[in-house]
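User: Predict the structure for this protein chain, please.
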Amino acid sequence: MSGLNIAEKRLPQDGRIRVRIAGRDIDIRVSTIPCAYGERSVLRLLDRAQAVDNFDLDKLGFSGENLRKLDRLIRQSHGIILATGPTGSGKSTTLYAALSRINSPEKNIITIEDPIEYQLRGVGQMQVNPKIDLTFASGLRSILRQDPDVIMVGEIRDGETAEIAIQAALTGHLVFSTLHTNDSFGSLTRLVEMGIEPFLVSSSILAVLAQRLVRRLCPDCRAPYTPTTTEMQRIGINAAGFAGKIYKGAGCKACRNTGYRGRLAIQELMVIEDDIRTLVMQNADAATIIRTCQAKGMKLLRQDGAERVFAGETTIEELLRVTQEDML
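Assistant: Here is the predicted structure, written as structure tokens:
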């Protein structure tokens, strides 16, 4: 069904299945890898109709300040906006939502993806195909000859792709892309490690958005409780001065006794301003950039998540689960 070679058991394979179930289009991504005793298979389910309905930045869980900043950034005429995070953290969905927000007949928007996850009306979408040497880098070169206003590159995987994306941004194009780093600060040093000159990184990057997905508390069975002092300290809150409510999911029929129903995104948005550009030019480490951004009032992932905990949208346990590397 997914078009894999069933006789090939020695190599990893990828495919996709499109099925219609109860009147809904479901996209199934299939991945197999060879293991010691056979093959291991993973299926990723994408509800196309539901996802397209959710391509709205207002519905993705952005906090007010981050939403205002991002709304301003995606309307710039040139530069690069990066979304970072691990696999499955919603980076592509956020970029699709940003493209949908600025999509209009007057704008020429072209994407190069691996694979094309959702079709966007009025957007030219190209899928990479390494078998015929259509890579992110080669495809991006061709896109530049199409006179685009906005370009989305599915992922910056190597220095060549990064270099072409930066050149595109410096010559009057707005570029969206994703990068696999744990936080927004690490993406700047990652680009430099790929061989990009620091002055090119500092002059082309507009902003870096890092995000994670946390499970949303079930509204039918959530109940207030008193957290321990240790729990509060782990998410950076002084328990002595806190008088609000924090919730836990009790479990009910609606959420299948898990206490959670649905997911929402928590984010940190680093806008590259003059002082950050200076630090990048000086090859400053991530810790120095973090201190500078915090001094300017930027909220880190765990701080944005803590606000969702206080709003009764998720739990302390869930926040610690997805931001554990930040707690060390």
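The chain has a mean pLDDT of 89.
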